[in-house]
Amino acid sequence: MKRLTFSLLLLLLAFFPAVASAAGELWLQDIPLSKLQDVYHRCGYEGKRGYLMLPSYKYPPVYLKNFPADYNSLTDETERNALFIKILAPLALKLNQDLLEERAVISAIAERFRQNPNLSAADIEILEAKAAKYDIFSRLKNNERRRYLISELLNRIDRIPPSIMITAAALETNWGTSRIVKEGNSLYKMLVWHTDKGLKPVGETTDDSYRIKIYPDIYASMQDFALKVNSHPSFTALRNFRREQRERTANISGLILAPYTYGNSQLKNYAGIFDYTLAYYELQAIDKSSLDATMIPEDITREFGRYVTKM
To answer: Potential cystine with 161: which of 142, 204, 287, 301 (Cβ 3.0-4.6 Å)?
Structure first.
């Protein structure tokens, strides 16, 4: 009897592989379109134009690891684009939560440094690790170096409006229909050089020295692009303007930052296309939104447990 009970338990664990990684979050993997729409319906995730949660400005923390395998079966462009935004909006909001939490760590160190420049070894280690992550270089030493690193990190570690993240992904992947999404969970066509690891470009160039980076999930792709925006020299103007907006206590919105996205493309009219797309789909409304864990029913894993996974 014990052996039978143990076997049944293993069978259940195989069928319902994992629960959400945190209370109030729902991570989904390999879910087909029809089931995903059922999940959204159960969470009340409908919205104006199918994706703008007005007037509540609240989104359920439903996070997809990958796009549905049958995503490209959507032939209606309006419906497909709405679903694309719907999938990415909660992930972009989560990304900003993570960025602000990371920034809060540096802000706390900045306050301790203001009160006493003799920082702890732990604080110095954090500053140096973050400086390496965000590609900050300086030959300064001791407290002058720490003052500089704090200033630069507060300039680089900051929120990226969800509208920016969504628009950039839409333009780079033709609203999720590109093969790089299906084969590599890539939303921004980030490149790696002089390696065979990654997706080989098809029909783009005869240059065989680069590949398109592959990710374990689409959130990892968003994190990588956020790191690029917050560290790469081509986005320096965007970061500086964002800092000015924060110093004015002004709203950091995608519409304001859109003209500074030219660093993401060599196309001369890229920023204009970016600005038009963002405004046309009213994505600035998502910039004002937040996640609401209460929108996810407690019993939802009973029905969709086979698609639930961890972060």
So the answer is: 287
